[in-house]
Automatic annotation (TrEMBL):
It is found in: Secreted, Cell wall. Belongs to the short-chain dehydrogenases/reductases (SDR) family. GO terms for molecular function: 3-oxoacyl-[acyl-carrier-protein] reductase (NADPH) activity. The keyword Oxidoreductase applies. This is 3-oxoacyl-[acyl-carrier-protein] reductase MabA. Keywords: Cell wall, Oxidoreductase, Secreted. It comes from Nocardia speluncae.
């Protein structure tokens, strides 16, 4: 079950945190993983760690918001691995240059980073691999999103939520267009993950945890396991869905 041997997976933004967990698990299930990140050293570290476990990975540093760079890197990785990408996990979604402020305080030049990364970055990766998936009759696309896409929150995340809800709409239409080719596309809407603890005080984390029924933050390896299911043959009957993976949080 959930065997990925013989598959080639591209995981964007996989140089740390959630993407690292996803790349690690896909490789443990047998996929050859292209570990992408904006920062070469992050991608190299994760790829080396996967190889040290006895699995297959290569690092490819590129900016997913740059279409030409994305296509060139994907073609180069495919040549190196000797096959086409047939699993894509669009994980990169936290823009380096995003400005976290209430919308009233944002100026129009500060709107694009989260929207560009979450919408165009994800679309660029899809475009780079979609023909190969459709022509071969098999493909799996997993879009990492957030509960913020569907729930208003007073946490200065309006641009991030705009990007996430935009890409969710795209993925639903993509799923409708590509099901006939054996290509599925699903959305995983995450709740707060373990790396939040690096950004907040223990008191803030304790408060957040009271809103999460399982009583803890998310674990990237568990997210990876869910992505492995969505990337597998066995998930072929599910497409176009938004699946909450948030510890049961009602606030999303
Ligand atoms: N961490 C959470 O609590 C949480 C909650 C909900 C949803 N998510 C989603 O999960 C995904 C991963 O989040 P995370 O917290 O692990 O992020 P992170 O910031 O810890 O790691 C993301 C990685 O993406 C890379 N990256 C950023 N811009 C890129 C670009 N243009 N091209 C290629 N790589 C790029 C970064 O260098 C970084 O290494 C995101 O889509 C995020 O929106 C996270």
């Amino acid at each position: 079950m959930f065997e990925l041997t013989g598959r080639i997976a591209l995981v964007s933004g996989a140089g740390q945190s959630v993407g690292e967990g996803i790349a690690t698990v896909l490789a443990r299930q047998g996929a050859a993983v292209i570990v992408n990140d904006l920062f070469g050293e992050r991608a190299e570290r994760v790829a080396a760690q996967i190889v040290a476990e006895g699995n297959t990975a290569i690092a490819k540093a590129f900016d997913v918001t740059d279409y030409e760079a994305t296509v060139a890197a994907v073609r180069a990785a495919e040549a190196e691995l000797g096959g086409q990408v047939n699993i894509l996990v669009n994980n990169a979604g936290v823009a380096q240059t995003r400005v976290i402020k209430p919308f009233r305080e944002l100026t129009p030049d500060q709107w694009p980073p989260s929207i560009d990364l979450n919408i165009y970055g994800a679309m660029n990766c899809v475009k780079a691999v979609l023909d190969g998936m459709c022509d071969s009759g098999w493909g799996r696309i997993v879009q990492i999103s957030s509960g913020s896409a569907r729930t208003g929150q007073n946490i200065n995340y309006s641009m991030y939520a705009t990007g996430k809800s935009g890409i969710e709409g795209f993925i639903r239409h993509l799923a409708a267009e590509t099901g006939q080719y054996g290509v599925t596309a699903n959305i995983v809407a995450l709740g707060q993950q373990a790396n939040l603890a690096e950004k907040m005080t223990p008191e803030m984390i304790d408060k957040i945890i009271t809103t999460i029924p399982i009583g803890r933050l998310g674990d990237p390896i568990e997210v990876g396991a869910f992505c492995a299911y969505l990337a597998s043959n066995e998930s072929g009957g599910m497409t176009g869905q938004t699946l909450d993976f948030n510890g049961g949080s009602q606030t999303r």
